[in-house]
Amino acid sequence: MFGEHGFFIIACYGVSALALGALALWIVADGRLVRRRLEELEARGVRRRSAGRADA
Q1: CA-based diameter of the chain, in Å?
Q2: Is residue 31 part of a domain?
Q3: Is residue 33 part of a domain?
Q4: Structural domain count, the chain
Q5: φ and ψ at 2, to 5 degrees?
Q6: Structural domain range at position 36
Q7: How far is CA 24 from the centre of its chain?
Q8: Is residue 5 part of a domain?
Q9: Tell me, what's the pLDDT at 54?
């Protein structure tokens, strides 16, 4: 089907799929970590600058 380079082609697709899957998992895990850190900071009273000031 792929000729004499079939194994190489399939291996490249496999490595690419694994790399993309790993990047997707990393992005999801990092997003959850950042969200958790923001919630912890907000629970301690640290507010975002974009939230505005209550006394302003």
Answers
A1: 73
A2: yes
A3: yes
A4: 1
A5: -100, 0
A6: 13-40
A7: 6
A8: no
A9: 58
